[in-house]
């Protein structure tokens, strides 16, 4: 039996479409545990362990239970930057209330010259983005100048909103340091789930310094990025998350938390 020409075209299109869907399913996904709005509301405990998170990716950012410092995930290592300035490798049993990780498969590498501020670094990164409505994982490795980072000390119940406890943050500075910016750039459409725009953490090459980046300059470096169009979002099952008010617009609270950011220490 011969198939009509139009039918054969439709069948070919269906096969190509299914092949395309199969290819998309193999693309790395940004795995998101919990939401930024939950953290802003004071949800500082989660069930997910570092070991479980490591199965989702080798690159990313987050924090640890009780809001105990900053998480920096680079080359498959989970670093824990605490409010006393210490840096250690997290234990597999450590847990997180919020994290963003993915298998880092960069598709673009660009050498960067001097930049006087974090805003200038971001402007250079923006030039490499083909579609600002996508997510991006961005690594910038190099020599940094005038860098400042922060970490928030572990909290105790009853947990207060992030905008209140962020005032207790510890700020660390270095005049010059070699290391890596680990960043997630989220589009505006992600508000509530992620921080729209750039969110940077840092780990030094000697693993003695890091945290959430407030400001920095760049002497020289190399940028690598991966565009991400797939998300995998997993939500905590605990009572804190269930009771958190996530109907409230927390954009102003997020701006307050991020307002401590500055270009130089």
Automatic annotation (TrEMBL):
Signal peptide boundaries: 1-25
- What EC number(s) does its UniProt record assign? 4.1.1.5
- Name of the top EC class for this enzyme: lyase
> Which reaction(s) are listed as its catalytic activity?
(2S)-2-acetolactate + H(+) = (R)-acetoin + CO2
Q: Please indicate if the UniProt record lists Lyase as a keyword.
A: yes
UniProt cross-references to InterPro entries, sorted A to Z: Acetolactate_a_deCO2ase
Q: Which UniProt keywords apply?
A: Acetoin biosynthesis, Decarboxylase, Lyase, Signal
Q: In which pathway does it act?
A: Polyol metabolism; (R,R)-butane-2,3-diol biosynthesis; (R,R)-butane-2,3-diol from pyruvate: step 2/3
* One protein family per Pfam: AAL_decarboxy
Which GO terms of the molecular function aspect are on file? acetolactate decarboxylase activity
Name the protein family.
Belongs to the alpha-acetolactate decarboxylase family.
Q: Note the NCBIfam families from the entry.
A: acetolac_decarb (TIGR01252)
Q: What is this protein called?
A: Alpha-acetolactate decarboxylase
């Amino acid at each position: 039996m011969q198939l009509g020409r139009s039918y054969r075209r439709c069948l070919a299109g269906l096969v190509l479409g299914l092949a395309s869907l199969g290819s998309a399913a193999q693309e790395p996904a940004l795995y998101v545990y919990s939401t930024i709005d939950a953290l802003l509301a004071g949800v500082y405990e989660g069930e997910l362990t570092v070991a479980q998170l490591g199965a989702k990716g080798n690159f990313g950012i987050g924090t640890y239970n009780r809001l105990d410092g900053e998480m920096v995930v680079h080359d498959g290592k989970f670093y824990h930057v605490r409010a006393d300035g210490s840096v250690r490798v997290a234990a597999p049993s450590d847990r997180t209330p919020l994290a963003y990780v993915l298998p880092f498969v960069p598709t673009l590498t660009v050498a960067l010259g001097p930049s006087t501020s974090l805003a200038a670094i971001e402007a250079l990164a923006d030039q490499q983005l083909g579609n600002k409505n996508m997510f991006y994982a961005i690594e910038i490795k190099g020599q940094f100048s005038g860098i400042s980072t922060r970490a928030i000390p572990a909290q105790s119940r009853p947990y207060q909103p992030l905008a209140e406890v962020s005032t207790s943050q510890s700020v660390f500075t270095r005049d010059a340091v070699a290391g890596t910016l680990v960043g997630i750039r989220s589009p505006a459409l992600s508000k509530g789930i992620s921080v729209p725009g750039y969110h940077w953490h840092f780990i030094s090459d000697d693993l003695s310094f890091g945290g959430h980046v407030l400001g920095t300059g760049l002497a020289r470096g190399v940028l690598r990025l991966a565009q991400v169009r797939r998300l995998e979002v997993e939500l905590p099952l605990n009572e804190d998350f269930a009771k958190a008010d996530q109907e409230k617009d927390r954009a102003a609270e997020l701006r307050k938390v991020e307002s401590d950011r500055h270009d130089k220490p």
